[in-house]
Each structure stands twice: as structure tokens, then as C-alpha cells.
Amino acid sequence: MADQNIEAEIRRILQEELSGNASSSAAGTTTSQPDGLGNRIFTNVNDAIAAAKQAQAIYQDKPLAFRKKVVQAIKDGFGPYIEYMAKQTREETGMGTAEAKIAKLKNALYNTPGVELLDPEVETGDGGMVMYEYTPFGVIGAVGPSTNPCETVLNNSIMMMSAGNALFFGAHPGAKNITRWAVEKLNEFVYKATGLKNLLVSLDTPSIESVQEMMQHPDVAMLAVTGGPAVVHQALTSGKKAVGAGAGNPPAMVDATADIDLAAHNLFTSAKFDNEILCTSEKEIIAEDSIKDELLQKIVAKGACLVTDPKDIKHLADMTIGDNGAPDRKYVGKDATVILDAAGISYTGDPKLIMMDVDKDNPLVKTEMLMPILPIVGCPDFDAVLATAIEVEGGNHHTASIHSNNILHINKAAHRMNTSIFVANGPTFAATGVGDNGYYSGAAALTIATPTGEGTTTTKTFTRRRRFNCPQGFSLRSWEV
């Protein structure tokens, strides 16, 4: 394909990603002026980045205690608004569930690692002292998805500001209203606590042009993109340091030694979480034939609808997968009942998942279905399970999981899958920091940077590692040099 055709195709996909589910309702009064609290929503990229750069120039000279004060202001300020953000996000985007979003927001707000990760590294010896410290990049250009709008604002802001950076945040038009609210509130909380404005800036009208302009802006030192493959591609070809979250199609492997009751519970709970819009969610089950039917029955008993008619299965695939091979945005993150009703498939009760027993080549298996559709594939033995999982994961190296009581199977699968996230005998959302009770002891991870290799990002991801040498001393073990 000619270069101009490649560019045109990227532009088409990017425009679709940025325009999907867009709402025309206003989020508030548009302004490029401060309102006294430091809430800054700008009309153009240059003004926004100039304001962030000015703020960061002040911020980078502040002690770490000041950064901790910023983070604490964010946590204290947003705490009372978690349910509001969850409900507004669900209402604006039409995706996921408010309950799941509450868990994700708590995770992003309270479990995101901060300044505590920036302890220096020091080495001393006969050659003196070498010290490594983690310092800010400057202004980071971030792009967020409609699937996790407020969560990404919170997670990115805490990590990047802990590292000493300011942010330009490119909102997804499909979640522009709640994103704008979050940006304004964050500025309000930080300003009231510290008197500093514009550590986080955004635009009143997000667009493909503004994202491209931001990515090429000379005062943006680094990019962090959480979104579809086209947006990530733009970041990776910008010439800047970029952290990109790429595509995934996480398989869940189940071998004959697994605790089937526990596996069924974990798979059902995790796959239905927020209607499968998490990139880490189990998108297909690959199970040994000897336990596949039992596993399937137990998941269905928990609240899944099993579709058995081949015509219905094909119709579901045709209806939910677009001509471009991607999931149809009309059904992304929608309730299982909405999809079943649209497909004309009858069901009983209120199913949370749609399941079908298919072969590995079915498009519902090979496509990253960001909706509550969970196919299951049978294999004769564990080696076939692993080989199939590697195949359907598609070389994205994003996320995979296994349910097994055979330590050798777990070890081999973790090694061979070579994914940024690997979970054994648990729900994959645990790897993002979310747990059944809304909190988890691990660090929140919303940007899974597989293409660029950082994996689950932390505060350190958004710093420069700098080296300081002092050959004349600073070793307490000896004196002569």
C-alpha cells in the first residue's frame, strides 16, 4: 500500500476512534480564561501546552513533599465523587456498568503508585559515588479512551504528577463531558491545596487534528496513549518518547487439574466485569475437552446465556464485528441483553454473558470482543490448549491467564505466552489492581504498555533516569582515593 494510502487509512481509523459514541451535549461553559480556581479548558493546543509548560517549570523546582500534597489533594477531592463519576460515565458513554466503574475508580484513585517509587539508587566504592535519580520529562501528552475516561485521568495524573510532570490530556469525544468535568475538578483541588494552576490541561472540543497537533508540538516531551491501535501508531511514529497501550485478545486457559468451581467463578466474575471493555478481560476460554462441558455448565449456571444454534452464532459474529474486522462500536460495552435482543436470540432471566462452544478459527475467538461475549474452545490436552492460546492471542503479548493446579503447566504457559500480564487461578482484573471488594493490594494499572515494553506503568515510567558521579568520595568504608 502506498504511503499516502497508509496515512489515509490510519486517519480514517483514528477519526472513528476519536468520534465513536460522541455526545453533542455541553459539559459547561467553554473558556480559555482562569476562573480563579485554576480550572483550565482551552480552545487551542498552543495555549493549553504553554500553560502546562509554565506550570511545570514551577512544579519541577518544588520538593517531593509538594508533589505528595498534590496527590493527596486529588485523592481527598475526588473521594466523595466516585459514584457520581461512575454514573455519569455510564450515562454518557452507554458502556459498562456503574458498579464496575466504581471499583475501577476506587482502584485508580487509591491504588495508583506515587512519589514513594522515586527513591534514588546509590552505589559507592573506591571510585567514589554514583547516584541515580528519577526526574520529570516536562509536559506529557496523554490520550485517554472512552472506556475508562475518569479512571485514566486519575491514574495518569497521579503517576505523572508524582514524577514531576504536567499533562495535556486529550479526551475521547465519546466521553468528553465527564472528562472535562474531571479535568476541571482536579485543577480545582490542586489549586486550593497548593495555589498551582494548569498542571493538567485539556481542550473544549477534542478532535483528531488537536491530537495530531499535540503529538507534534515541540513543548510536549513525552506521549502516553491509552486507546486503539491507530492512536498508538500515531504516537509511536511521532518521533517522541512514547508509552503505548496496544491491542490484546486475552485467552483464559483451563486444564484438567483446575478447580472447576473456582475457575467458573473467576471467569464469570471477570468476563462480565464492566461488560468486557477492559483490555485485560478474558476474551475467550481455551479448555481441555475432559473438563470443558462441566466448566461451561457451571458458568452458564452463574448467569451466562449459552447460544447453541450455529446460525445464531454466525449472526452474532456478523452483527458485532464490522467489515474492518474490529468490534462494532454500536455494541461495545453494552449489556448482554441488549446484544441478544438486537440479534433476536431468546433468553431467560438477566444474563450477564453470552457464551458459545466454537472452534479456534471462529471470528468471535480471533477478535478482541470488547463486549460480554465469551466463546469457549475445546482441545484434547494441555499442549494443544497452550498452542491454541498462543495462536488466538495473536502475538499481542498483552494479557493471558490460566486455571490449573499443575505448577509445571502454569510455569510453561507463563513463559510461552510472554505477555505483559499473566494471571494464575484468578480473575484478570486483579492484575489491574481491582478486586472483588473494590480494592486490591497491588498497584493500579490502567495503561498496559505492551508495544513499547513498559508493561504495567508506574510513576517511574514517566521519569528520566539520570546519573550523578562524584569520584572524589562519599564512601564511608574508605578514605584514600
Automatic annotation (TrEMBL):
The keyword S-adenosyl-L-methionine does not apply. The keyword NAD applies. Residues 17-38 are annotated as: Disordered. Residues 44-429 form the Aldehyde dehydrogenase domain. Residues 19-32 have a biased composition (Low complexity). One of its GO terms (molecular function) is acetaldehyde dehydrogenase (acetylating) activity. Keywords: NAD, Oxidoreductase. It holds the Pfam family Aldedh. NCBIfam families: PRK15398.1. This is PduP protein. The lineage of its organism: Bacteria, Bacillati, Bacillota, Bacilli, Lactobacillales.
